[in-house]
């Protein structure tokens, strides 16, 4: 039977402890687990805007830039297809006077992120700009970010301090398993650390990721959704009027 050796932990100083996974058993168990997760995701609720206090909420649009939706090394049709839904949510938030933030990936040549990803969203290029459809609606606070986690940006932490009444965050954009997941979990952990209750809501029809090699879009979306759920993020099917 085939197996995979995985380094699990350091047993003693300088000594690695190895755990052997039996491949067939692992795959069988994983299939059962994935089936259970899918059953759970199929039962996710739909949230209504009427349940949300508009003056305490913000729509967060993550990385809906040309460099992920329309051009460049990391463009994805799945991300492009998010544009109409996020535009709808943006217009709903304008009608309800819900604040909005838009994060935009924006890098320089010095970015260490390019050790892991191809060059993308370079500062001063069209790739780093929010897509026109969302930009034309406007009304958001633009925050440029130089890492996958927008929470780390000083401009966002300043915004949080200047808006202490906000306790509901509606997250949209890309990528579900990278920037969205990192921001959602860090944000939730921040409020937990400060003993404050906050809703971090992720409607699954307003986030997505990409297909590339072993990075299977559907699998990554499912696992990211599950990981956010077990970290206290409110993952839902949709958010509607």
UniProtKB/TrEMBL annotation:
Cited SUPFAM superfamilies: Isochorismatase-like hydrolases
Residues that span the membrane, as ranges: none
Top-level taxonomic group: Bacteria
This protein's UniProt keywords: Hydrolase
Xref: Gene3D superfamilies: Isochorismatase-like (3.40.50.850)
An example Gene Ontology molecular-function term: nicotinamidase activity
Domain Isochorismatase-like as annotated: residue spans: 58-226
GO biological process: pyridine nucleotide salvage
Keyword Hydrolase: yes
Listed name of the protein: Isochorismatase hydrolase
